[in-house]
Amino acid sequence: MIEPQPLPDEVKDFIFANAHSDIPSLVLKHSSLGGIPIAQVVDQIVGRRKANTKLPAYFAHELVLYPPALNLEQTSSETTAHFKTSLLASTTTPGTIVDLTGGFGIDSLAFSEKFKDVVHVEPNRELQQLAQFDHVLLGARNIRYVNESAEMYLESMREVSAVYIDPSRRNASRKVYSFHDCSPDITAIQERIFKHTEVLLVKASPMHDIQLALAEIRYVQRVIVLAVDNEVRELLFLAVRDFTGKPILSAVNIAHSDTVAMDFTGEEEREAVATFADIMTFIYEPNVALLKAGAFKLVSQRFHLDKLHINTHLYTSNELIVEFPGRIFRIDAVLKADHKSVLSHLPAAKANIIVRNYPSTPEALRKKLKLADGGDHYVLAFTSPAGPTLVSATRIR
After folding, report:
1. Chain centroid to CA 384: how far?
2. Does the pLDDT of residue 64 top 50, yes or no?
3. I need a labelling partner for 7 at 20 to 30 A (CA). Which of 141, 282, 351, 394 fits?
């Protein structure tokens, strides 16, 4: 296996010159460049495109090399990697941490900034060498690389501060809801892990079933639904050896430099009492992390808001609650579901459409109302105590 080498200047220049070029056209025009197959060159162009927003530290370094698109798609973003690092560093003494599914190494790099030592475990030698090449470029000097499977490494692992694992789907073509369908199967190796550490952090996809995961992973102290810019990116299960209490659910949304979090227990949500009312001055839409975490009745109780309908996860009040964790809209008018009514309040015939528990899709409603997409105005469609309801609104936060 040939270790990664810096790209020739000719290839680097080509990558930067074609940052926005059509990829299929490049593949048709070139078979190789500077002795490097065009497929590998294209990987670097695609990698830089993704890194621009997902991996800004990597993007800023011109010599960084990227893996094939699938590996890059599966990796954490720098934002979520730094969140996990802070979470683990605040949970345990940051000595040695083992990343049992090292992959392209984004999480390992973040861990290296706060932990004394990092062990990057990865069975794919080529991917691991690529990760190491980039880590060195980016200044990491405290990462050790072990080219083994997670299961094999556990046979010789010593006591460490924490272990991190990101199991991947065994079958990439189907949705996964259970860790039994992932590799490594955390349910089969967790007991071995807890022999060598008190702290285990398990990452899962947003599609994972939280309650099923809680039945599969032992000692879960906290479940974090982690969203970035109101899109759920990861589910995190923080397990602490011998913990026996009720897990805390944390709905976290990171937007720019602002992090909004709401903590609660499943019992709090079950015992919460929601109040209901018809639309008032303001409408509140919880962020996606709260919705995935299942805080429906508790939002009404904790923020003193009325829910519009038992199956409509929108809330209303006449008072502005600025600390609400989500979007806030001021109602401008109640509309009839026809073009003429809408046009009288939206003369530009343009608006963003949001549909919640309403007998139509956004696309069908847009077509019916003859509205263009975008602009500063919103049309909210939902079920209220009065039935299917349509309002025009202005987003105030």
Report:
1. 31
2. yes
3. 141
The answer to whether the CB of 345 falls within 8 A of the CB of 373 is no
**pLDDT band of 176, cuts 50, 70, 90:** low
**For the chain, how big is the Rg over CA atoms in Å?**
24
Cα–Cα distance for residue pair 255/258, rounded to 1 Å = 5
Query: Buried b vs exposed e over 139-154: b needs ≥16 C-beta within 10 Å?
Result: ebeebebbbebbbebb
CA-based torsion, 111, 117, 120, 125: positive or negative: positive
Q: How many CB atoms lie under 10 A from the CB of residue 114?
A: 15
Which residues, in sequence order, are CB contacts of 323 under 8 Å at separation 6+?
A: 303
Question: What is the model's pLDDT at position 5?
Answer: 87
CATH numbers and ranges of domains, the chain? 9-66 (no CATH), 74-245 (3.40.50.150), 271-395 (3.30.2130)
Q: What is the DSSP string of 212-231?
A: HHHHHSTTEEEEEEEEETTE
DSSP states of 49-107: HHHHHH-HHHHT-TT-----HHHHHHSPPHHHHHHHHHHHHHHS--SEEEETT-TT-HH
Instruction: Give, in order, the Cα–Cα distances in Å from 173 to each of 67, 75, 169, 170, 232.
Output: 21, 18, 9, 9, 20
DSSP 262-302: EEEEHHHHHH---EE----SEEEEE-HHHHHHT-SHHHHHH
Going from the C-alpha of 340 to that of each of 4, 343, 355, 360, 377, the distances in angstroms are 63, 5, 20, 19, 17
Both tokens of 66, joined, read 């990227």
pLDDT(3) > 90? no
Query: How far is residue 115's CA from residue 374's CA, in Å, rounded to a whole number?
Result: 45
User: Are β-strands 275-276 and 258-265 bridged in parallel, bridged antiparallel, or unpaired?
Assistant: unpaired
CA dist., res. 357 & res. 310, Å (int) = 10
Helices (H), 4-65: 9-17, 23-29, 38-54, 56-59
